[in-house]
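Ops channel
N.P.: pipeline sanity check, posting one input/output pair.
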């Protein structure tokens, strides 16, 4: 449970007023106020489950998600609920993307203040403190892009920090399959529950444009700084004993390879396996994986990390492409038997970062769903919607 005292001495109506007085342009004022509202919503207490069993943890998180989704839906009008809700079997559940486009679901822009606060509380049921701050900061970057691209026709509507959509799939349940999604530009967060437990939190995509804000009152802010800096420290270390194999290309690809509708089969893992690293490199590597996984709230992240066996850690590989120099195009990949993580920063003169995490067999909970139907309903695998 978060303490309100963390923020109460700093963020007050007087503080908000002073900030707004300093802002010279309306878009900037709106961006700052929205970011502060996101942070303030963290002060709302949330009951977390703390059972020692990972399975019970996932059940407890699902119970909390069900509670918060129902509370949010109760605040919506009938028309809003129709926009937000889909059958669990809907193809829309698998229709993920990260580009700025119109989406199905209910956007923040269409919600009043109470509805937004309930939506933010729902976010906190699945994300850690750092994951929540990353997501809400990524949303606020749309105001930065609006100013940077102010001469682009239609940009006022295209770059909007309120164009992030919430969607619910199926009936929130402690027994039957259901899920929910938060998605917009540079965010795709997908939770799937099966048999009363959170079964999957992938695909998970976060992006940051700009990767580093270089002008204005937020200059120096880097949303995905740790994901970049930890990996760079590791690749530099690997030059001492694995220089040739750790770098798979001199030029980084323009984008992560596992974009929507692309195959997740990238062939045999490339680069250097954890087993081949020395103890210092292994520690760096594990901290990097943990940094990305801990976008999720603690119980879920702990469960994911505990599920990586010693043998799988040994098989996990790390590969780099592009420059080692910050501010120049680079890419890395973490690949193993059950998951793949990619990071790319090449666009906009290497100031536009993407990170994506996939389960190779359980994106959208598809493998858990298949096993659920086979064991509980005697349904064939063909009845489960499929996605690469």
């Amino acid at each position: 449970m978060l303490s309100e005292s963390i923020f109460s001495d700093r963020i007050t109506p007087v503080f908000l007023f002073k900030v707004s007085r300093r802002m010279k342009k309306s878009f900037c004022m709106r961006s700052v106020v929205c970011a502060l509202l996101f942070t303030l919503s963290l002060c709302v207490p949330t009951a977390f489950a703390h059972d020692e069993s990972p399975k019970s943890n996932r059940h407890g998180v699902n119970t909390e998600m069900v509670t918060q989704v129902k509370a949010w839906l109760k605040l919506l009008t009938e028309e809003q609920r129709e926009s937000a809700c889909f059958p669990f079997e809907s193809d829309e559940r698998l229709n993920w993307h990260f580009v700025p486009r119109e989406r199905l679901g209910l956007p923040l822009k269409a919600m009043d203040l109470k509805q937004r606060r309930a939506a933010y509380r729902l976010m906190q049921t699945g994300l850690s403190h750092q994951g929540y701050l990353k997501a809400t900061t990524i949303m606020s970057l749309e105001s930065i892009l609006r100013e940077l691209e102010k001469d682009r026709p239609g940009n006022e509507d295209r770059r909007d920090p309120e164009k992030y959509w919430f969607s619910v799939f199926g009936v929130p349940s402690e027994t039957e399959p259901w899920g929910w999604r938060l998605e917009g530009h540079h965010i795709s967060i997908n939770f799937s529950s099966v048999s009363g437990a959170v079964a999957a939190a992938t695909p998970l995509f976060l992006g940051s444009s700009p990767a580093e804000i270089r002008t204005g009152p937020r200059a120096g802010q880097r949303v995905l700084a740790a994901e970049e800096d930890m990996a760079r420290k590791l690749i530099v270390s690997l030059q001492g004993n694995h220089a040739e194999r750790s770098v798979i290309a001199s030029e980084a690809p323009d984008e992560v390879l596992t974009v929507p509708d692309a195959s997740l089969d990238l062939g045999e893992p490339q680069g250097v396996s954890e087993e081949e690293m020395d103890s210092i490199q292994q520690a760096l590597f594990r901290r990097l994986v943990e940094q990305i996984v801990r976008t999720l709230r603690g119980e879920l992240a702990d469960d994911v990390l505990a599920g990586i066996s010693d043998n799988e850690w040994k098989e996990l590989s790390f590969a780099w492409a592009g420059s080692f120099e910050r501010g120049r195009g680079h890419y890395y990949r973490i690949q193993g038997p059950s998951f793949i993580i990619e990071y790319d920063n090449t666009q906009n003169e290497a100031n536009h970062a993407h990170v994506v995490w996939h389960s190779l067999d359980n994106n959208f909970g598809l493998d858990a769903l298949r096993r659920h139907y086979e064991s509980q309903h005697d349904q064939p695998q063909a009845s489960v919607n499929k996605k690469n």
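N.P.: looks fine end to end. The longest strand covers residues 187-194.
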